[in-house]
Design goal:
transmembrane, Putative gram-negative bacteria binding protein, alpha+beta, 26% strand, 3 domains, Glycosyl_Hydrlase_16, hydrolase activity, hydrolyzing O-glycosyl compounds, Beta-glucanase-like
Length: 519
């Protein structure tokens, strides 16, 4: 229980302190009456509202300390919880030049009726009547170019869709290798000579180099010292490897009349000749399945490893127009196993190429080749669809989509045959004019008008330029007689880059072939 007088004294003391500090202050003080006391209650009065307003301004920078005012003798208040806020006015004066006004109730605020400032009636609007040509032309130009741009974009999309041929194809062959390597369609080519490209691998029929599992067909290169009885010393000197039928094991499949180095080799440390240090595999459909105009799709994952050369390609069943490249070659896909960040044109890039020309020196493949890169990954990390479409009017190769073409070559009488397109009629070799091997057919796509068979292989190295010299720390020089030995002696620099297990090989999940025309 506390006294109302004591509360009044406390309020006056606070106001005196504020006045002493010369601060303008306005205080609304609601005094609450004492709790229930033993004395009888005074008659009910309204809540006392005290307002203090400082009326004097400070005239000096450092005001003198003013004495504390004495507390007021007596102010009566009642319990606000029992008294309505109505009653008489009381006032309390201070001795410090400020005054206090205690009022019974604040006067009500006057409400002014809202008056709208909106203009009523008809008023002139000159900005509507006056037209600004500059703003109008700004809009016309913007929307005009927008419409033109959208139209051009739509036409480009339509033209791209329209340019993709939609020919009829009849299924010819399909193999997912779930039942192994079917000898009814596939051959193993066994040779040592590199098939004209100077590769360092020995292609075999060994099941460690070509085999199947639930993933598909694997073509995996292995080291000769790991899969044969040939030692490291014998690879370099004093060993004869004979695959011929006369004096050898008879496994060589070369069709040359004089196979020479295709079927046998002798290691000699003096000449630099060595036994092929790597074994791999090469599967073909030669003599069993061929195609003239149609479509091929192969789902494959490429190998990891420096100087590996995976390829999916086609060669003619017969050299109708002459030896390579006169009768043509279709490279559906070629790549390199080198890591793309370290080697320009590595396994993050694949290419498609047509080889053609009247002589080996005049192979004009560079006119009909293209490539397709992949970003943030490479073609050895997952399976990709690799395809080709071939008609009398064009040949094109692609990856993953028919729109993602690696190379597109069109044939037409307007463009002329390949003899004319190559400009060979103006060329001479050893002082002699060249003879035209193709024009007698009258077809603009000759020599790509004959049956071709399919080849799947993983080669190792090359001496004919597929791996350019002085690029990517290449350890041998093209056309060098010791290229194979230099490659093998530098194996510590590239062996660690080859993938583990099947990753160093190419995996083919499926092969599909269609013939042009209705079934």
């Amino acid at each position: 229980m506390f006294s109302a007088d004591r509360d009044i004294r406390y309020a006056n003391q606070m106001l005196s302190d504020a006045c002493y500090k010369a601060l303008p202050i306005r205080i609304n003080l609601d005094l609450i009456a004492a709790r229930e006391s033993k004395a009888p209650l005074i008659r009910k009065r309204p809540l006392l509202r005290v307002q203090a307003i400082h009326m004097e301004e400070q005239k000096e920078k450092k005001p003198e300390r003013m004495p504390r005012p004495s507390p007021q003798p007596h102010v009566q208040v009642e319990n606000p919880f029992q008294t309505p806020q109505t009653g008489s006015v009381a006032s309390v004066a201070s001795a410090s030049g400020s005054y206090f006004i205690a009022e019974e109730q604040a006067p009500p605020l006057k409400q002014r009726k809202f008056k709208s400032a909106r203009l009523v009636g008809e008023y002139e609007k000159p900005w509507v009547k006056e037209k600004e040509p500059r703003k109008i032309w700004d809009k016309v130009i913007f929307f005009g170019f927008l419409i033109v741009g959208l139209g051009i974009g739509a036409y480009i999309c339509y033209d791209g869709w329209r340019s993709v041929p939609h020919d009829n194809y009849c299924p010819l062959f399909e193999d997912d290798f779930r039942n192994g390597i079917n000898p009814e369609y596939w051959n193993h080519e066994v040779e040592l000579g590199g098939f004209g490209t100077g590769t360092f691998d020995w292609t075999t029929s060994d099941p460690r180099n070509s085999f199947t599992d639930p993933e598909g067909l694997h073509i995996v290169p292995t080291f000769t010292t790991d899969t044969t009885d040939i030692t490291e010393a014998q690879i370099n000197d004093g060993y004869v490897l004979n695959l011929t039928k006369t004096g050898g094991d008879g496994s060589c499949t070369s069709t040359k009349k004089i196979p020479g180095g295709d079927c046998s080799v002798r290691s000699n440390i003096t000449s630099g000749s060595i036994i092929n240090p790597v074994r791999s595999a090469r599967l073909t459909t030669r003599g069993k399945l061929n195609l003239t105009y149609g479509k091929i799709e192969v789902v494959a994952k490429l190998p990891k490893g420096d100087w590996l050369w995976p390829a999916i390609w086609m060669m003619p069943e017969k050299n109708t127009y002459g030896e390579w490249p006169t009768s043509g070659e279709i490279d559906i896909m070629e790549s390199k196993g080198n890591y793309g960040d370290d080697y320009d044109g590595g396994r993050d890039e694949i290419s498609g190429t047509l080889h053609w020309g009247p002589t080996t020196v005049l192979d004009f493949f560079w006119k009909t080749t293209g490539k397709r890169d992949i970003r943030r990954t490479d073609y050895s990390n997952d399976f990709h669809l690799i395809g080709m479409e071939w008609t009398p009017n064009y040949i094109y190769t692609y990856v993953d989509s028919r729109l993602a073409q690696t190379v597109f070559v069109r044939f037409s009488t307007k463009l002329g045959n390949l003899w004319k397109r190559g400009g060979f009629q103006h060329m001479f070799v050893n002082g002699s004019a060249l003879s035209d091997p193709w024009s007698q057919t009258g077809r603009p796509n000759t020599p790509f008008d004959e049956p071709f068979y399919l080849i799947l292989n993983v080669a190792v190295g090359s001496t004919t330029g597929y791996f350019p010299d002085r690029q990517g720390d290449k350890p041998w020089i093209n056309f060098s007689p010791t290229a194979g030995r230099d490659f093998w002696n530098a194996r510590n620099s590239w062996m660690s880059t080859w993938g583990k297990g099947n990753e160093r090989g190419m995996t083919i999940k499926s092969v599909k072939m269609w013939r042009e025309g209705k079934c």
